[in-house]
Structure formats: C-alpha cells, structure tokens
DNA sequence: TATGAATGAGGATTCATTCAT
DNA sequence: TATGAATGAATCCTCATTCAT
C-alpha cells in the first residue's frame, strides 16, 4: 500500500511515456477481450496499428508488459478505493466502503479489472508475479483491516480474518466475469447485496 | 442436473471408452499441474506414453476434450455432493452441507476441481463453454436452493439469491488455488468458517 | 576415442533415422555454404523441400541438431583416420599418417570438415559444446600421440607436445577455408608439405 | 602493405573521426567478448552509452564497420610488428621475429587480435572481405619473406612457401582462442616453441 | 486402434536500418 | 551530430491437426 513512487525508474521521454501508456492500455483491452493467453503482441499491436517490434522496443519482454499492466491497473484502483475507505471511521463502515468502492471501480473500469483478474488467474500470469507482493496485497490488506477492528471489538471475534478476507475478495472478483459477459448485470445492486451479506457475516453478534 | 446420458451419443467400444477416460484423466492432471494454457496435447500424451495423434483420434478437437474433462469432473462432483445435501432437511442445513461437501470434495479430488476452475477461469475455456449449461448450473442449482427455502421462510427474505449464490460459489472456488499452492492450507477449517459466514449472512434475522 | 555406442539412445523408426540423417546432412551442407550463423532452420528446410517445423519435430532444438552434426561428422572422420594411423608402427609414421589422413578426409568430405570447423569456431557453437569432450579430443589425442613417442625417444625430447599439437591441428584446419574458397587448392600437396614440415620440427636431432 | 591512406576517403571533421574510432574500438571489444555474431549494434552502442542509430549514422552499414575494425586492428598490428622484423637481417631471424612479435602483439592486444580472427573465421565476415586484400595480406607478406630468403639460400629450398606461410599463420592464430579462454595460457612460451618448430621446419638441412 | 510423420500458423524476440527531430 | 521512435524481416520454437500406414 506504499504510494507508487519507485526511486530508480529510468528516465523516459514524453513520447516514450505516452507510447508505453498507450500500449499498456491496449494490452488491458486486449486481455479483457481475448483473455491472457489470447493477448499476443500481434493482437495488441494490431489494435494500435503499430508493428509487433515496437512493443518489444518499449518493453523488455512479455513479462515486463504484463507487470506494467498490473501496475497501472493496480495504481488506478488504489487511487480510487483508498480515500473512500479512509473516509470511514468504523470497521464495518470501512468494510462496506471497501466492498462498494471496489465494485464501483470495477463498474467504471471494467477492462482494467477484468485484465487484472485474468492475469492473476492464468498460470503464466501467476508465474510472472511469483513472489510479487502487489498481487497478494489485495487479500492481505483486507485481512489487516478485518483483524484490526476485530481486535478493537468492532467485528465478531470468532471468525478467521484470513478466510473471511479470501471470501470477500472472491465475491468481489466474481463480479468480473459477469461484467464481461452479462450486459444487464447490475453491479451497484450486487455491491449492496455483498456488502450486506458480509456485514451480517462479520458483525458482533447482537444477542448477549 | 440430468444424469450423464445424452440420447445421441455415438456407440463406443470398450477400448475406446477406456482410452477416452484415460485421456480425460490425464488431461485433468495436466491442467491441474500446468494450467489450462500449459495443457497441450503433447504434454497430456507424454504423461500417458501415447502419441499426440491418438488424442486427436479420440476427440474431435481440443474443445471436445475440454468438454469431456469438465463433464467427467462435474459428474464425479455431483455424485459426491448431492446425497450429502439431500440428507439434510432444512434450508440452512442444506446450505451448510452444500458448502462443506463441495470443499470436502475439493480436498479429496484436488486435481478435478483445480482443472474445472482453471478451465472456467480461462478465456479460452469460457469460449468453449459459451452458452453451455453445465458450468452455470453450479450457480443456478445453488440459487434455486436458496430461493426455495427463502420463500419457505427458512432464509432471510431480503437477500438476492442470485447474488448470494455467486458469492458462495466464489468463496468455494477460491479455495482451489490455495489448495494448489499452499500445502498447509486447512480446507476443513476453511469450510467451517465459510459455512458459518454464509449461515450468518442468510439466516432469518433473530431480532423482531 | 571410445567407439560410438551410447547405451541410452532412444529407439527410432527407420524413417525417423533416415530423416534425421538427411536433415543432419543438409545442415552440414548449409553450414559449409552459409556459415554457422547463416544456417537457419529455414535454409536447411528449404534445401530439403520440407517445412521448418519438421526439423523442430525431429530435433529438440537447434543445439541438438548441431550436436548431431558434429557427432556424425566426427564419427565419420574417426572411422576414416584411426585405421590409417594404427597401420603405422613408429611415432613419426603415425604423425605423418595423422596429418595426411586428416587432410585426405577433408579433401573427400569437404563439407563435413568445413561444418565442424565452422561450428568449433563460432562463439555460439562453442557455447553449445561447452564442456563437451568431443571437440577438445582432437587436440588431446594428438598430444598424447606426441608425448608418448617423445618419451619413447622417437621424437625430439625438447618440444612441448601440447603446443606442437595445437600447431599441427591449426595447420590441418587451415586447409578448410582454402578448400572452400580456392577450387585449385591442391590438398594432397598441402598434406605432404605439412607432414614434412612437422616431421622436421619433431624429429630427434640428427647431430649428436 | 600500402600505408593506410586511400585517395578517395571522404573528409571528416575531428569529431566524426573521434567517434568513428571510438565506435570501432567498442566494436573490437564487443566482438572479442561476444563473438562476431554476438556483436550487434545494440551491444556495441550499449557499451558506449550511445544510441544504435548513431552507429548507422557514422558507418554505411555493418559491413563498413567491420571493415574499419579489421583495418584499424591491422594497422596497429603492422605498426608493432614491422619494425621488429626489419631489425633482423637474416631470414631465420626475421621468421623468428615475425612469429614472436605477432604473438607478443596478441598478448598485449588480445581483443584486437581476437576480433580479427573472429571476423576472419566467421562466414559472414569472410563474405564482407571477399576479394579484399587486407586479409590475405598477412599470409602473402609472410610468403614473400619465406620465398625471398629461400631463393637466397637461407631457408631449406624444398618447401612450398605458400603452404608454409599458411601453417605458420595458422599456428599464430591458434593462440587467439587459447588467450581468450585459458587465463593460464603462457603465450611467450608458446611463441618460443612455435618459433623453434618452424625454425627446424625451414632451416637449410644441416647434413650434406 | 494407434502411430509417427508432417504441416503451417502463430508465438516472442532480436536485428540492422531509416527518419524526423 | 546525435537521438529515439519505428519498422519489417528473420530467428527458433510450440502447437493442434491431418494422414498414410
């Protein structure tokens, strides 16, 4: 959850930065459309009307491009979600904000999220990020949130925060294929339902 | 949920049936091991010590093989899970049985489940099953269970059964990568936690 | 210098054996013609009128093919040269036989030798054979011959067998590019001259 | 053997001359390190911290650059070797000086020599110099030396100077890969041994 | 039934080169 | 002078599929 900055990034021209972003964006759309395995350099390049070689020119390899895809998508997601969580003060409020802002972001940036999920799910994608923190972070940060406020007494004390975090992330990510396939899928309703479900699953029990 | 037999299946010799089952089993293990994209005919054939061509001989294409993989895996899962659900009489009991038997089956047949999830998640796999019922069935059957007993007053009346079914399936399927990657993952504990969480999320509210 | 046999060679069909030999032969000619770097699968395949993929089908990679090229060429060379050396009884006789039979073989199998030298000289080729014995053997075997008969008093005692072996091999291999480029190059005359030169360079000094 | 200047060389600014020399030097080191095939413009440019394009700007093509590499290396070698030969008065003295100064230069300018040999050996390199005099010169000059003093009665009359020159050059050049690969290779000892060997091979026979 | 031979498309990547700036 | 952006050809390799045997 550390803010984006990496000290040793190579300096880049304006044009290069633009091209890289453009290619990353095209990669995101291509992955969302054709899946991770279907997102060949050829298809990405075709979408932009550039040569395959140019992608290799700007990225040191397929793995590099994929990493940038995830990085870019993750940064955007964090920028969207974090303030909405921090605007809340209670654990349950934050949990609801977490779920709803995650899904709201997904609704507004379908492809970003579809691409991330697609990458995370593919075996090759997991190989690229083997040992990388960025990916597991999503679950871990949520787990911390849960266990923190559980200790503070704002959540039911007898659930396993790790398991609960997995379940919540799974429910969020499950929206992704529906978004992609079902044009009538109502994501804000989905968000409300999920938030309520996990509110009930985590609240301190009401009877003494 | 109709039992395996389709009317227009071609007649098969004993040997052919055996070979097909053998190849499907090898495909399951290969997918579980190397991922969907990594499960080439070459690798599957190598595992069995047969020629690549033989797979093409027995299956009309890769899509056909994948369909059989899912079919075979799904049949086994149903055979395991259904009686355990039907042994229960109440809605909450059935829900708990659904969750726990699903995860128990996953624990005992890792590869079957990993393969199914791997296929369901891959874009190419989804393309193969586009419009196919087998895959959506898992969610739909659960949804029927929920809405049936919701009508009967055994579940909280104000949740959307479709959304809840998605969330439950997602939580169950999320166990798959953990099973594959984390050898210390305790699936029976995970099952208990998930069952409890969704029990709380679906029970009729206790306060008037 | 151990005879060809490798115990664990995979069994091969008649056709496969033939194809492999054919491809190796085409590779030899292509290397001789276009150099190591110029011997792409495409060019080799084109020469045979087969597809590029077929070469990949029969050989596990470029390195594998190159190894077979060297192996095949080396076996033929050994089969030609060894009996001619062993037919001699004295050190000087063997040395002359070594030089002359090497060069005679080169004259009769230009491409074989050109290919071997080309491979041995290219950086990539050396990478493939890094640590391999087959290649250094040529110098080492000669060195043993020299030092053996030097000890026996049949060669001048005060030369370094290793250095001398290098020089002799170099003189032999130097014929290769001439063979390739100069159609008028008289290799048997070259052989005689070289044999004489190194006879003089290695004989026990005639004056007491 | 004509001194460097060609009449129709284009005029060059100081900077251009410096850059060209710098690039040629980098090319030499790169070839020595990565082999001829491995010496791409990319690697050469990287070593200097300049752009690939700049090399294309200064040289009309890869062939041009390679020619300059050989030219520059050859000039340096000649400047080192010639005076050492001319300091001798007898044929055998000159031959020994030729061999020893060649090898001494190689010891002191490994990369120069390795690069030259690497180029001369590669098929692509030979293609570039097809019909070029610079390369054959090395052999031809030595051949003149041998035949001149042979006529003068200072060398054995019955050897073929052309063949002998080839053998001597080959022995000298054979040191190059050893220099590159074997850090313990003792080149001055090698030089002495070779010089002695060819002294014996070329001297007028001592017995009437 | 099963094999092994063969294809051809498509994969990422590297390369020398060109050109506007 | 020099750069950096871009190209297109060429590299090896893997894949699913076909077909004669």
The major β-sheet of chain A equals:
none
Give the strand content of chain A.
under 5%
Number of helices of chain A: 11
Helix-and-strand structural type of chain A: mainly alpha
Oligomer kind? homotetramer
- The poorly predicted ranges of chain A are 1-7
Instruction: Report helical residue fraction of chain A.
Output: over 70%
Element-level helix/strand string of chain A: HHHHHHHHHHH
Q: Span from first to last CA of chain A? A: 37 Å
Mean pLDDT of chain A: 88
Q: Biggest interface, which chains?
A: C-D, 38 and 38 residues
Summed up, what is this model?
The structure is a homotetramer of 208-residue chains. The first copy, chain A, has 11 helices and no strands.
């Amino acid at each position: 959850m550390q803010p984006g900055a990496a000290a040793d990034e190579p300096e880049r021209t304006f044009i290069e930065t633009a091209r890289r972003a453009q290619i990353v964006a095209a990669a995101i759309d291509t992955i969302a459309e054709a899946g991770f395995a279907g997102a060949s350099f050829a298809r990405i390049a075709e979408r932009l009307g550039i040569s395959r070689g140019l992608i290799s020119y700007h990225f040191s390899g397929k793995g590099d491009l994929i990493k940038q895809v995830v990085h870019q998508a993750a940064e955007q997601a964090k920028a969207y979600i974090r303030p909405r969580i921090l605007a809340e003060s209670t654990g349950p409020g934050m949990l609801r904000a977490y779920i709803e802002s995650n899904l709201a972001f997904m609704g507004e940036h379908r492809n970003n999220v579809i691409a991330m999920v697609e990458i995370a799910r593919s075996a090759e994608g997991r190989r690229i990020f083997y040992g990388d923190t960025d990916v597991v972070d999503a679950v871990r940060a949520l787990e911390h949130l849960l266990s923190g406020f559980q200790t503070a007494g704002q959540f039911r004390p007898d659930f396993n925060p790790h398991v609960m975090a997995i379940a919540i992330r799974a429910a969020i990510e499950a929206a992704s294929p529906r978004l992609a396939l079902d044009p009538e899928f109502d994501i804000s309703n989905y968000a409300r339902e999920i938030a309520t479900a996990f509110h009930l699953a985590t609240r301190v029990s009401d009877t003494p």
